[in-house]
Amino acid sequence: MPLVRKPSSQAPAAAPLALGEGTSEQRWSAVRAAADRPDGLALLADALSRESDPRVREAIFTGLARLATPESAALVVPYLRSDDANLRTGAVDALRAMPQACRPHLPTLLADGDADVRLLSCELARGLPDEEANRLLCDLLERETERNVCAAAIEVLAEIGRPEAVPSLVRCGTRFAGDPFMIFSLKVATERIAAPARDRR
Amino acid sequence: MAETASKRILVIDDASLVRRYYRDALERAGFEVDEALNGVEALEKLLAEPADLLIVDVNMPQMDGITFLRSLRRQAPPIASIPALVISTEAGPHDRRAARTAGANFYLVKPVAQDTLVQHVSIMCGLSA
Amino acid sequence: MNEVDPVSQEELRAICEFLYRRTGMLFGEAKRYYVQRRISDRMNALGIAPFRTYFAYLRSDADGEVEKFVNAFTVNETYFYREDHQLRCLSSDLLAERVRAKRRGEALRIWSVPCATGEEPYSIAIWLLENWPEVDVQDIEIIGSDIDTQCTAAAAEGEYGARALMRLSPQLVEKYFVPAGKDRWRVVPELRQSVQFSSANITKASETRQHGLFDVIFCRNVLIYFDDASRRVAAENLFEALAPGGFICLGHTESMSRISPLFEVRRFPDAIVYQRPLIGGNGAGGKGGHSNG
Q1: Interface pTM (ipTM) of the complex?
Q2: How far is A14 from chain C (nearest CA, A)?
Q3: pTM of structure
Q4: What's a Pfam family in this record (chain A) (predicted)?
Q5: Does residue A199 lie within any of the structural domains?
């Protein structure tokens, strides 16, 4: 039985270089180490502003998600406005990974002037406690004019919605009475929320 | 109905209500419908069982629709050549161009009515609408 | 007998979607029945009804409910030759591809992490000895690591009960184990020397890096317990621990899509596995799409 072998000794990875320098492999190692340093936030902020390699940028987002402070979340927020779908996705995923850090930003984000930002922020509200998410999303539904933003809010409420959300959903429906998708969504969402509730046994 | 029943449509969208809406329309028209919540899950499903047509959203977690299409077109046939209908909230020229370059066959902007959807899907599956 | 609240298809779909978003576990139509049963079990155990109330309880993760729910699909499954389709994939496809990519004489390195009490790394060793024709000519290194040093100590001892061996034929048991008391068997010394054990926490880069580069990593049913941030870190650590072109195998209900866009998904006849791309990551091709606009 010849599988037996001596353990090999592999050299440990080289110490991280300065950020923003070297090959993408070296930059990846450097940004990955940054979150553990006391000046990590500043290092990652600087790296994010200069980085163009998607994989290294993902690692920067991960580092910011590990820090998980309102400041690290604030660095990711501008990327919700990107023209590049890959970047927008990366930003939402990173913010989703730090729900507590997003919390102070959400009221502002849900009232942002850019409809795309409001739309993506609805998904982030899913990470909040139910009551808070219901309140924020219902407030949005009452004032929101963009159909796709309303659709995103309804999507989240279809899962986390409480009975208190039903009036806002109904009022929203009156504004999109001619829109088959919205009628469909609102019907499914209100059905789910109002599913027959019996008492705890 | 007889010809639509043999066509399998994979709907790729992170919004459950959107998938429900498409599924509802397509199943009534006789299509077989499967769902994926993002690009990676879609690739996993397609590698297990190919589809006749893909309906792809752009903004999705983990792997967005554009990155998914690029990855799809790099796969081995027959998966690489499955036609893709992109349906997105993004109406801007940047996203349309990115989708086309990545390998989308058609681009629609939400909202899409159910009969419009069935019509496009039928045509793209080579059936008379 | 407990009365069970009926759960609609719609509700079942909603809970599967939540579990997928939260854990990366994918429950296809075929597995929905088990999900439904588990929901009923948990609702009965907790005395919670209707479904909507339980779903809110699960989402709030009160008293670690997500882990309790998920455990039902993974625990008590540490036996030899578990998920042997992946082992078949290893010997029929993955290793051949890795051998082609390597220099002559360079070792093939396989990592089982977390390895719990060692059933998986020993299974890999036995499987290769039994099923991979090149086992005698290739230099193969198998490492099992776990965060729990009690587990790795037990793994190094290599002593198992009948339940762990249930999937092995009597011939294999006789060949690779010696009796060690009533209903106990111990892995033969040569096989024990074929597998090294170490401690590693896959969310700590400093710990994963010490293990060097691997050709194949088995990382089953652990990422599902992590929150998003830890999962991202673990995925990056595993990416770094793979040689370019190396493979990673996850548990049967796990989907990489909740874990990381870093890897490419590859289909082989026996399994779907994930691969570290030869150059860069998955998004590396991303810039081409904007250049001709």
Answers
A1: 0.84
A2: 10
A3: 0.84
A4: HEAT_2
A5: no
